[in-house]
Structure formats: structure tokens, C-alpha cells
Fold Adenosine 5'-phosphosulfate reductase.
Amino acid sequence: MSGAEVSSLSPLPGAASSSAKSLYARQTTGFDARLARTVELLRAAVAMHGAGLLQSTSLGAEDMVITDLIARHALPVAIATLDTGKLHAETLALIPAIEAKYGLKVEVFRPAAEAVIHFVRTNGEDAMYRSLALRKACCGLRKLEPLSRMLAGRSAWITGLRREQSTNRAEVPFDEDDGQGRRKLNVLAEWSWADVWHYIEQFDVPYNPLHDQFMPSIGCAPCTRAIAVGEDFRAGRWWWEESSKECGLHATNKTIGVTA
Ligand code: SF4
């Protein structure tokens, strides 16, 4: 991550509290243009893909911005999320919050129960800490398999990937091939963390309160911890690994990443 990227994760001098909004929200040069471009991208995606378009939301801050934009601009985009069975209660609470605030349905995809039971019986609840292979196996059955069902029949999906999130994502394009014959639309690719929180503050977007506890990137509870000031955005994900902090949800020829 570059120095500029680290600085956007650093609290503003004199921030009054630890709320993510007070720590990070600020309007920077070009925000209005970036916002307008995102709305244009979403409109173009609807025109191009129609009912084939889906927002895959991790319920993280970026994805909450996108859901708000979909609702605010009355865009006909289906919204879906993955419930891995290991999410924080705070994350799951956002599903009814979205449905109540926007009147939109969030379709929830879960892993196959038998596969989870077999994996846990064989390897234990904490298998992910024992080896990279077991961690990836857990991500495979709890995330990748239900994601494949989520995306079946779709021609494009919208994600909250941003270039600033990590070095792995530094070249995230607005539109890319997902490696499975679909378009993956990273409509916030050029947004900063400050932009995300400026939008959330400006439009009163609901968000995960764990973001107020220094968790910029939130995944499953056993695999997410808070980060310290100056640490990489994704340092709290699979923190015990020396891996690329990714689990394959966004593995393509151009981008390896995960928002969940
Ligand atoms: S993030 Fe952790 S708990 Fe969630 S699917 Fe991957 S290894 Fe399993």
C-alpha cells in the first residue's frame, strides 16, 4: 500500500471519537466527479445487463454505499449476500436494516449444510488456523460454492473492490472479466476510504458498527481482527497468515481479491 493510501486510513487530527465517520469521512478533491462516474457506471450496467445484473454485497462499508446508490437512483439491480455461518451478529443485522430502510430484498446464500457439518466433524471448528490449505477449504465451502450459486445465470456482478484496499487490488479496473464468462463491475475502484465515509456521512447510510472498532475490512468472525493505525487495510483478515489476504471470491486473471 502506498503512503497516500495509508494516510487515508489514518485518523484525522483531533478526531473527537472513534466512530469511523468522525475518523475517516472527508470530502476530497474530485469526490463529486467520482460519485457521478459511479452512478453513470451503474446506469450503464443496468442498460447493458438488465436482469442479468447483481450486486454481491459483503455488507461492508463500500457495499453499503453501492446499495444506497442502487436505492437512491431506483436502479433495478438484485442484491445478494453470503451468510457463511461465521459472520458477526453485527454484520447479519445489516440485512434486515437494508430491507427496512430501502424496501429492497437481500437474497441470502448459505453453504451446503452437509458439507459444513462434514468439514467441521473432520477438521474441527478452528481448522482455518491450522493450515492455509484448511483455511482455503473452509473459504471454498462457505464462500466460493454459495457464490457460484449466487452468480448462476447472471451476466455481471457489482463489487465494492477499491484500488486503495491493498497492493493486490492496486490495478482494479472498473470492468473486468471474472474468469467465468461474466463481467465484474468494480464501480468504486477509484474511491478512497475517505470518499466511502464521506458518502456514508452525507447520506446517512447504515453501516456495520464493527467499523467503529478499527475493523475496516470485515469478514467471518474467526478470521477478522481490528487493525492498528498505519497497518494495511486488510491486515486484520487472516492475520496469522503471510498470505495475500485473499480467499478467492474475486480470483480472475487480473484481480485476486475478496470483499466478504
Ligand atoms: S473467512 Fe474464515 S471462517 Fe470464513 S470461510 Fe474463510 S476460513 Fe472459513
Q: What stands out?
A: The chain has one domain: 20-223. Residues 84, 86, 128, 135, 138-139, 142-143, 219-220, 222-223, 247 surround iron/sulfur cluster (CB under 6 Å). The longest strand covers residues 53-57. The domain at 20-223 is CATH 3.40.50.620 (Rossmann fold).
